[in-house]
Write a structure and sequence with these properties.
about 575 residues, mainly alpha, Growth Hormone, Chain: A, Glutaredoxin, 4-stranded mixed sheet, 4 strands, globular, Nitrate/nitrite transporter NarK, MFS_trans_sf, MFS_dom, transmembrane transporter activity, MFS_sugar_transport-like
Length: about 575
C-alpha cells in the first residue's frame, strides 16, 4: 500500500517539513481570529448592538482576506526578484509579530473606538503576510519535486491551512480548559501571545533553508525577471492563464474550502447553538481524520491529471452541500426543526425597510424595524418566513400564535438604541422559549458520531479540490515570474471569494430567513467554476516547471546569457539538499 512518506529521502522530507511547518504556523495565526470571532466582537465592537458587533467582527476577519492580493503582489515580486528564502523570512516575521500584538491590544471598554481600529490594522498586516506566504511555500516545494510526483509533494503544503485551523482550535480548547471562566474575559489573549513561540521556531527553521534550485539556475544564467509584475500581467498569455485559473479553478475551490471548514464550524456554533467546546472538538477531530486526503488527492492527480480530480470535487460539493448541512441540523440540534414545524416564525414587514446586512466598509446603519428583527433572529439561529406588510405599518415577528412588535431605531443613538434592542430581544427570547425553540443545543441530543462523519465528509470534499491545486498553479506559469503569477490569482480567489463567504452568508440568511440560505453563495460560485473549468482549464500534469516558456522571454538579457533555460534534471532537483549545515 502506498504511504505518504514512502520513498522520500531525508533531504526531501526536510524540504517539505521546512516549507510546510512555517506555513502551518502562519495559518494558525490567521485563523485564531476567526475561531474567536464571537469573543472578539464583544471585546472590540462593544460600542454597537450585539448583531452589528458580530457582523463587524466577521468583516474585520474578512479584511485580512481583502488585502491578501496586495500581499501577493508585494511579496510575489520580491520572491521573483531576490529569491524564495528571504521572502519566506519576511512573511513569517510580519505574520508572527502582528498576531502576537493582538494579545496586547486594549479593548473597546478601555480605549473606545481606537480598539477596533488597531485590531483591523493588525488584521491587514496579517493579510499582507499571508498573501506572500502561500505562493512561496508552493513554489519552493514544487521546484524541488520530480515531475511525476509534484502533486504528492505539494499536497503537503495544501494540508497546512487545515492543520493551522486544527492547531488554533486545539490551543483554544486547551486554554479554555486551563483558564475556565476567565477565558472570555482575558484568557483569549493567550493563544495570540503563543505566536511568539511559533515565530521563533519558524524563523529558526527558515534561516537554515537554501534557495530553490530552479531559482538558483535562473539566477546563474542571468534570467531573473527585472519587472515581475509587468512580465506576469502585461503579457497577454500569462494574463489569460491567470484569469482562467482564477475563475475556472480557484474561486470555486475557495468557496468549498471555507464552506467545508470555517462556515461549517460557524453553522454549528452560531446557527445550531452547539456548545463551542463540543463544536471545536468535533471539527478538530474531522480535520485530523480528513487532512491526509490532501496528500492522497494530490498524489492521485499525478496519476490521472489535475483537472479530473478538481472537477470531480467541484461536482460532488455542488450536489452534496445542501443534504449535508440539513443532516447536520438533524443530528446536532433536531429541536430547531421540530419547533419550526410546531410554531413557525414569520417576519411581517414592509420590504422597503428591509436591507441586505452586508457592509464591507462599516458605514451603514442597520436600524430599521425590519433589520433589527431579522438580524436578531439570524444571530439567534432561528429560521423564519417573510410576509409583506402594508407600507407604513410596524414590523412584527409572529411566533405561532404570538405577535412581537419590532421598533424603528432610526435616530436613536448609542446607549438608547442598545437599550431598546435589549428590550426587544428579551421579548423575542421569551416568545421563542414559549414556542420551544432551544437557546442551546441539548448536549444529550447531539449525535456526535454522525456530526463527526458529516464534518469529515466536508473536509474530504475540500481536500479533493484543494489537494491538486498547488501543483496545478506551479505548472501553469514560467519559473522567472512563477511566484508573482500564481500568488495574485490564488489570493484574489481565496481572499475575496472565500474570505467574504461568512459575512455574505450571514447577510443572506438574515435577508431570506432560511437556515441554509447562506449556502447559495458558495453553490453559485462552485457551479460557475465547474462550468468554466470544464471548458477552459488546461491539464498541466507532467509539465517540466524548470523549463522557460518562450512566450515569456524577458525584454532584455545580460550579455553572455544563453538563449534557452536548460531544464534542471529532475532527480537532482528532488535530491538537492534543502538545509544548510548548521
Amino acid at each position: 500500500m502506498w504511504s505518504a512518506t514512502s520513498s522520500l529521502s531525508g533531504d526531501e522530507r526536510k524540504v517539505i517539513l521546512a516549507a510546510s511547518l512555517g506555513t502551518v504556523f502562519e495559518w494558525y495565526d490567521f485563523y485564531l481570529y476567526g475561531a474567536l470571532a464571537a469573543i472578539i466582537s464583544r471585546q472590540f465592537f462593544a460600542g454597537v448592538n450585539e448583531t452589528t458587533g458580530f457582523i463587524f467582527a466577521l468583516l474585520a476577519f474578512a479584511a485580512g482576506f481583502a488585502v491578501r492580493p496586495l500581499g501577493a503582489i508585494v511579496f510575489g515580486r520580491l520572491g521573483d526578484l531576490i529569491g524564495r528564502k528571504h521572502t519566506f523570512l519576511a512573511t513569517i516575521l510580519v505574520m508572527g509579530l502582528s498576531t502576537a500584538a493582538v494579545g496586547f491590544l486594549p479593548t473597546y471598554a478601555q480605549v473606545g473606538v481606537f480598539a477596533p481600529v488597531l485590531l483591523i490594522a493588525l488584521r491587514l498586516l496579517q493579510g499582507l503576510a499571508l498573501g506572500g506566504e502561500y505562493g512561496g511555500a508552493v513554489v519552493y516545494v514544487a521546484e524541488h519535486a520530480p515531475n511525476d510526483q509534484r502533486g504528492r509533494y505539494t499536497g503537503w503544503i495544501q494540508t497546512t491551512a487545515t492543520f493551522g485551523l486544527f492547531l488554533s482550535l486545539l490551543v483554544i480548547l486547551a486554554c479554555r480548559s486551563l483558564i475556565g471562566d476567565g477565558f472570555d474575559e482575558w484568557g483569549w489573549r493567550v493563544p495570540f501571545l503563543l505566536s511568539f513561540i511559533l515565530l521563533g521556531v519558524s524563523l529558526y527553521i527558515r534561516m537554515h533553508l537554501q534557495e530553490s534550485p530552479v531559482f538558483q539556475r535562473i539566477k546563474q544564467e542571468g534570467r531573473q525577471s527585472r519587472a515581475p509584475l509587468t512580465e506576469a500581467f502585461g503579457n497577454r498569455r500569462n494574463l489569460k492563464r491567470a484569469f482562467i485559473v482564477l475563475f475556472g479553478s480557484i474561486a470555486g475551490l475557495a468557496a468549498i474550502w471555507y464552506t467545508s471548514q470555517f462556515y461549517a464550524l460557524l453553522f454549528l456554533k452560531q446557527t445550531l447553538r452547539v456548545d463551542p467546546q463540543t463544536a471545536d472538538l468535533l471539527m478538530a477531530a474531522a480535520l485530523l481524520i480528513g487532512t491526509p486526503c490532501f496528500v492522497v488527492f494530490g498524489h492521485l492527480s499525478d496519476r490521472i491529471g489535475r483537472k479530473p480530480v478538481i472537477l470531480a470535487g467541484l461536482l460532488l460539493a455542488a450536489v452534496c452541500y445542501l443534504p449535508i448541512f440539513k443532516a447536520l441540523t438533524h443530528y446536532a440540534n433536531p429541536a430547531i426543526a421540530q419547533a419550526e414545524r410546531n410554531s413557525p416564525v414569520l417576519v411581517v414587514a414592509d420590504p422597503a425597510t428591509c436591507h441586505f446586512l452586508f457592509d464591507p466598509i462599516g458605514t451603514a446603519r442597520f436600524d430599521s424595524a425590519c433589520d433589527i428583527a431579522k438580524s436578531a433572529l439570524a444571530l439567534r439561529g432561528i429560521p423564519y418566513g417573510n410576509d409583506v406588510a402594508v407600507a407604513g405599518t410596524p414590523t412584527q415577528v409572529v411566533i405561532g400564535a404570538q405577535v412581537i412588535a419590532s421598533f424603528d431605531g432610526a435616530g436613536l443613538k448609542g446607549a438608547e438604541l442598545q437599550s431598546r434592542i435589549a428590550v426587544f430581544q428579551q421579548a423575542l427570547e421569551a416568545g421563542l422559549e414559549k414556542a420551544a425553540y432551544p437557546a442551546q443545543a441539548d448536549p444529550a441530543a447531539v449525535n456526535k458520531p454522525m456530526v463527526l462523519l458529516l464534518l469529515t465528509v466536508l473536509v474530504v470534499l475540500a481536500s479533493m479540490t484543494y489537494g491538486p491545486l498547488a501543483a496545478q498553479l506551479a505548472e501553469l506559469f514560467p519559473p522567472r515570474i512563477r511566484y508573482t503569477s500564481m500568488s495574485l490569482p490564488y489570493h484574489l480567489g481565496y481572499g475575496w471569494f472565500g474570505g467574504f463567504l461568512a459575512p455574505v452568508a450571514f447577510a443572506m440568511v438574515a435577508r431570506n430567513g432560511g437556515l441554509y440560505a447562506g449556502l447559495w453563495y458558495p453553490l453559485l460560485v462552485i457551479g460557475t467554476t465547474l462550468l468554466l473549468g470544464a471548458a477552459l482549464l488546461p491539464e498541466t500534469n507532467g509539465s517540466d516547471i524548470a523549463a522557460n516558456d518562450p512566450d515569456d522571454e524577458p525584454a532584455s538579457r545580460p550579455a553572455g546569457a544563453s538563449a534557452e533555460v536548460a531544464a534542471v534534471p529532475q532527480p537532482a532537483v528532488a535530491l538537492q539538499p534543502a538545509l544548510e549545515q548548521s
